[in-house]
């Protein structure tokens, strides 16, 4: 009987792992499509990246709160009454939303897209270190190889083989390191909150906080943006697919496969964005793009065939030091679907949109 139970649990774990990989991949596709839409809006209309980032948060944050009010009212009120949980949400908003946006856009402006993207993806090393500390083990050879393939693939796409473009100045490097920290934080910080309250509540509260924090910088009420009917449809796709849908899919994948695997799979975002740009905008694909894609696909094969790691809920997350209150009763706890409040749409100084992985 015990053997049958163990086999059943093993098969269930494998199924959850495959589902998590599929969700992370789908989230990356949505972000890639969103990046193409943002490229259209920022190059063919007078919309700016900061305006887009702030306005879609202002829309999606309250929308998530409204859904939570209807379907997960107990969980929402439990969160809003708990100061410790609100501080957790504020940490997610500050690091996963505000720091990600400001640091990445600043690093793009100071050191260029290729170096900024490469430094940002080095945040995966922070996730690996955190994961190994949590699980009290050394990095596995497969994980190290996946990380190396990821960084090489991102470097190939970001620099187009121009290694000299990696020269950075001190201030730009600091902003890039801030982006790496934000990437790690956006994958790690929401873990226990997602387990306890579900993605609708977590996303609604943290996105709304992020929108409020970005309002003084974006000042959307002072920006006149004239969009055509077609442009409004594209903007709607950014909000529905690239914000609401993508973050739900991605953070649900973190629940199933953990932040390390999900972060690696999310590197498919610039790859998918490249192909969507080719199909929808006619942006050409270079040999270096193909080399980068091949390296990232190789990484994905390694991730997909890696044995399942311990469940996320089996170990405390980085914010458990706050001594959070007891979880809601199982009978009233919301489903643990998930979402991340981070953004994905930084741009070049000349207005060209750069790919951003997700966190």
Biggest sheet overview: none
Q: Return the average pLDDT rounded to an integer.
A: 75
Strand content: under 5%
Number of helices: 13
Number of domains: 1
Tertiary shape: globular
Strand element count: 0
> Which structural class should the secondary elements be placed in?
mainly alpha
Distance between the termini: 42 Å
Rg, Cα atoms, Å = 20 Å
Helical residue percent band:
over 70%
Secondary-structure element pattern, one letter each? HHHHHHHHHHHHH
Low-pLDDT runs: 309-359
What does this structure look like?
- The protein has 359 residues and is an all-alpha fold.
- It has one domain.
- It has 13 helices and no strands.
- Helix 4 packs antiparallel against helix 5 (113-121).
